[in-house]
Amino acid sequence: MTRKFSGSFTQQEAIPPEGIEAAVAVLNSGRLHRYNLGPQEQGEVALLEAEYRDWQDSKFCLAVTSGGQALQISLRACGVSPGDAVLTNAFTLAPVPGAIAAVGGKPVLVEIDDNLRLDLDDLERKIASSDARVLLLSHMRGHLCDMDRLMQICDAAHVRVVEDCAHTMGAAWNGKRSGNFGAVACFSTQTYKHLNSGEGGLLTTNDPELIARATILSGSYMLYERHGAGPSAEAFADPRLDMPNCSARMDALRAAVLRPQLAQLDRNIERWNTRYQAIENVLQGHSRIALIERPAAESPVCSSIQFRLPGFTADQCRELLKQAAARGVELKWFGGLEPNGFTSSHSSWRYVTAQELPNTDVVMATLFDMRLPLTFSEEDCALIAELIREAADEVAR
After folding, report:
1. Taking the model in full, what pTM does it have?
2. Which residue of 233, 252, 272, 394 is 20 to 30 Å from 148, comparing CA positions?
3. CB atoms < 10 A from the CB of 173, how many?
4. Are residues 22 and 121 in the same domain?
5. Same domain assignment for residues 354 and 243
6. How many domains does the chain have?
7. 100-103, long-range: CB within 8 Å, 24+ apart, which pairs?
8. Given pLDDT bands bounded at 50, 70 and 90, which one contains residue 47?
């Protein structure tokens, strides 16, 4: 072995200077709580909400402490009660079924197809068999299913859709932004997402009653008039008394570092997609590596890449991890029996009733995943792809 990649797969770009300056200003003020404002002061969180609302092209936006809290609050705001069945992807990250379990719901897992998207035929079957009235749709790893058909299915069955857009901030289906299809959308600003505040989340919707319930749930202390992207006061008449306070407010410091990043997001989407293409160009045509197909209707944000190695055994998959690591390439494998890093399988979610998902299991058995931080150059990405090919060839010998 003569070549090795020396970059870090967890190193993000620095916060823009404007974000650092804004954060220092917040620290100097001592006013970190979103409602601790001076006279006539709008505050960083309210400004972020208004700016993200406009960027997303939605009517309302709420900033919270994490993407997971956005999911839980959205489910509660949609009326999910303990014991209710809630549909979701069998292939997703643990916080998604975790959010359902956290509000007392019962996850009903839906199969995925070979390209990691929700199997819409299985969705129809599970709607009929479960009596679920909410789908928590995970756009896992940035892959959008046929959103037109999905909404036709759900609307016909009176199933409300909560979109988990943690991996699709800025993506679109037939020109319509991810998150603007269902009743409510949830976004994450955790370090490895498209905006980075360490932890954080955003929730958008066009429904004034839903956003009013979500705002009270997030912990407004009746200070909902200080929100930059909320509904009129009339929408809070009942929610202010009906909804519990879950204390999930975003603070001013996080909002301050996010606002300049939002201003750069469209440019960064282009940069991610260019890096993805550099890797895909090299991996294409390898006899063992199966890339994930992208539908023509999808405009993705490719901040990670996934591929499969059909025919590889579990031992070969584990060996590929070792061979890639020896070349400085950090891959994640979704076929392991135990959770590892940011990957896990439905079989390890013991808070979810065990369910038979044969196609999902086959797909995940040889599925690999890799982050594409913007600290990588296009040349880095081409080298990484060549090293993955070398590792696959070494394992297949």
Report:
1. 0.96
2. 272
3. 23
4. yes
5. no
6. 2
7. 100/75, 100/136, 101/351, 101/352, 102/72, 103/72, 103/75, 103/76
8. very high
